[in-house]
Amino acid sequence: MTEGVNVNVALGDKTWSDVKPEINPIILNFIHEHFKFTTMSPVQENAIPQLLSHKDVVVEACTGSGKTLAYIVPVFHMLLEKMKTTNLLPNGIYAIIICPTRELAEQVSAIAELFSNMTNITVQRVIGGHDVKFVGHVAVCTPGRLLDVLNSRAAIGQGVFDVKNLEILILDEADRILDMGFERQVNQILAQIPKQRRTGLFSATQTSHMMDLIRSGLRNPVKVQVKVTMKNSAHQSTPLQLTNYYIICHEEAKLSQLLHMLLYTLSPEQEQLKIIIYFSTCACVDFFHKVLLQLVQARKNANRKLQIVGLHGQMVQKRRTVTYEEFLNGKGVQVLLCTDVAARGLDFPDVNYIVQYDPPVDPNSFVHRVGRTARMGKSGTSILFLSKREDNYVEYLQLKKVPIIQGETFIVDGVEQDKEVEDGEESQDDEEEDQKGKVIENVLPEVLEMVKKDHDLVDKSTSAFASYVRGYKEHQLNYIFKFSNLRWSRLMRAFALVALPDIRELKKNNIQLPAAHIVDVDAIPYKDSQREKARLVRLQKNKKKEAELEEERTQLQEEKKLKEKNLSQKKHDVRKDTDLKSKNKKRVYQQLEMEEIRKEKNLLKMLRSGKITEKQYSEMSGEEDFEKALSVSSRDSQPNKKTKTGSEGFVPSLLQSAEAKKKNKKKT
């Protein structure tokens, strides 16, 4: 790899007209007239000349540095220059741009289509929900959909997607593409497209997977590494115009702090705001989205009105698109609750605040999350919530060249110290932390009342709690975010939990719900009449089934006790049998015991493995085998001699001999 170019992020002094080789006049005029750009960003200033010089490039730059235009401009310039000497085939693909998500591909397509309108170069989208029915010289794709089209002989046979004249391949958010598990698809794509091409990789971070891809897919690439540098200091990983804050607060205080900030403290004088709030899981987004909507609705007299929407990867594509457009085009204070699916690639212009309600599981996601704001030289603010036991994360971020300072902490009225603290020192630290800041309203009692009246919130609360615990357990920085440090009582109150999910740690430690959270969950209705009707039918069936199981369980227990009693009586009869010698009597009794233990052990293994039911286990482990053993008729044998039947036939033969002696005595 050729030596990299390191520059500071800021809108530079170099103009678009200064680029060498010169940019095609059609593109240059369009940039000046449509985008109103005069100067270039550092990533554009250094990446565009390399691509125009027909070199492969690897561009590493923080989010919001102008990477999209850094490859869109060279793509259209190359094709316009090619059109001077040859006609572009109507069914030929001359440029491929691969994006990690459909949303990013849609955005890139929209920008590319602006340039397409000024030229005869066409653009087509090769993503889910779009059929490949028309020609396009520039294909904007997602990895899976592109591979499907390349593998489709029908499409290639119709001449819809001909890549033999491919000039340039761009991988946008290349690190994200690999992180999402598309490495195999990318390698298969590289194997099916021409080797004589230009390739550009654009990303915010460098990983080991990226290096493997660079070695296999690029030829002598030039590395363009854009770093943010403050005066008299080393470089940093986030935009210079971004201010990062962290707030230390208990788990059960986070929601109250968040609502207070949204309503009163985040730029209260501004009427137009865009705020993105990140959660760790999709279920958390669903739960807190519904809760925040109701909390805001109950505060109609607040200083501002909030428009709150939720976005995560488990939504159907149509709903995701609608949500994205609502947040993008909405007026007033727009609040987006999302997971990391929106942390990369999606272009939300003019985002003012990033709030990380949950720290990211992947440490690299922090930079990508906060990169949604402070884009292209604009200012922005990010806020990170941490508990007292997670504050080492601040030091970790500082080691990663992320400048961060402590923000204002509020005291949430009525939030008590957790009774689960393991030592007095931690409790004292928490108490000192609680004594700082302005007192604000505690909204958790209100949320708990919401949950107690809506079964849908019961479901969402339980799912959110369980998913949060699973995510926390799998945190990559588990030496900072220690699973053993979770405070279950606080966490249950934070999620207004009224139904315990099936989590092993809860059962193992016999964790119970807080007293105020213990309710009859079956009595909580759905507000939707159809769902409530279905729930009542389901509940009735479950109760009937449970009653039948309980009756069967009781019957099996009684049968088992009876069989144990009969077995005990048989053993007693053997011990009292005066016709058996003492030595043989002991041997018979021991054999009965050993045979019983062996059978019980084998049956228990079968029960645990699911090969038999509890009823079958009870039947098979009862007195039936002993009845057979005591009633088997076989030839007479001496009790003090071994028989050919071995250990299994030894007991019946001794018992039979004893019974024969009894009959002879009666006859005489």
TrEMBL record:
Presence of the UniProt keyword ATP-binding in the record: yes
Superkingdom field: Eukaryota
Record field: catalytic activity: ATP + H2O = ADP + phosphate + H(+)
UniProt entry tagged with the keyword Mitochondrion: no
Region (Disordered): 562-586, 615-668
Domain Helicase C-terminal: 241-422
EC number: 3.6.4.13
Pfam families, sorted: CTE_SPB4 (PF13959), DEAD (PF00270), Helicase_C (PF00271)
Enzymatic class: hydrolase
PROSITE patterns listed in its UniProt record: DEAD_ATP_HELICASE, HELICASE_ATP_BIND_1, HELICASE_CTER
Keywords associated with the record: ATP-binding, Helicase, Hydrolase, Nucleotide-binding, RNA-binding
SMART domains, alphabetized: DEXDc (SM00487), DUF4217 (SM01178), HELICc (SM00490)
Biased composition (Basic and acidic residues): 562-582
Segments forming domain Helicase ATP-binding: 48-224
Entry's Gene Ontology molecular function annotations: ATP binding; hydrolase activity; RNA binding; RNA helicase activity
Function: RNA helicase.
Protein family per UniProt: Belongs to the DEAD box helicase family.
Domain notes: The Q motif is unique to and characteristic of the DEAD box family of RNA helicases and controls ATP binding and hydrolysis.
The protein's name in its UniProt record: ATP-dependent RNA helicase
